[in-house]
Amino acid sequence: METVEKDKRMERNDLKNQLDMSRIPRHIAIIMDGNGRWAEARGKERKLGHQAGVETVRCITAECARLGVKYLTLYTFSMENWNRPTSEVQELMGLVLSSLKDDIFMKFNVRFRVIGEINRLSMEIQDRLKETMETTASNDGMTMVVALSYSSRWEITKAMRNIIGELQKKSLGKYSEEELDQLITEDVVSRHLETSFMPDPDLLIRTGGELRVSNYLLWQIAYTELYFCDTYWPDFREQNLYKAILSYQKRQRRFGKTEAQIEDTKNGRQTDDGEEVSDPSGEITTEGESFEEVE
Predict the structure, then answer these.
(1) Which of 20, 136, 187, 207 has the most CB atoms at less than 10 Å from its CB?
(2) Rounded Cα distance, 266 and 277, in Å
């Protein structure tokens, strides 16, 4: 047993040493899948898998904070999850409550935020969410975002309704086509999404072996690098996170451009359209990126 643990530590350290610390993803989103199957594979009740998954949340949150990740978004409970057995939903909600008491937020200077249709949650959970956000509001390290009672289609639909509501303050018939082109843009949509306070994910990780994004951040992951692994969420540890980041760092993010254009931009030469610039990490960013940074 001691030899196994020693080998794991060596692998973990070796992988971490391979990381380019100047190219750590600014925003990592995770679909935490496989809790129930992890438990069933061990002949245990599904709720024990969810409990084990909470420990992984603590572990990965702490390591992302140490690595310098700025935003970590965790798919905690989808709208579709409301269709699960009542007992399992109640267990999950209980875990949400207990997790919000965790000292990890203050220990690692983590700010807490939540996205989703929070009104569907009990008042006890809503109050605890609000309390945790207020308690951690001055933390200026990493921001941990929990997607709770969340659905990307719901989010986009809600954004469209809000935009239409704003336009209806002036009769739609009074807008010219040119005006509408300016009033309904990608930036306008982004500003009306739940995630308007943070940049889009650089890396999306899904555990558990499934190869789909399950109605998660559909608008935001248009240019996100995707990483899928077979490891169930309760078994996902630092070395698994390092593997995902190493995979991300080996990829070239072109955003529709050619490899030559990207290399020119990295070398500080302006592209033909002048829209893209290089940041200190060598990543390609868009000057007009629209989101309101968390303060």
Answers:
(1) 207
(2) 8
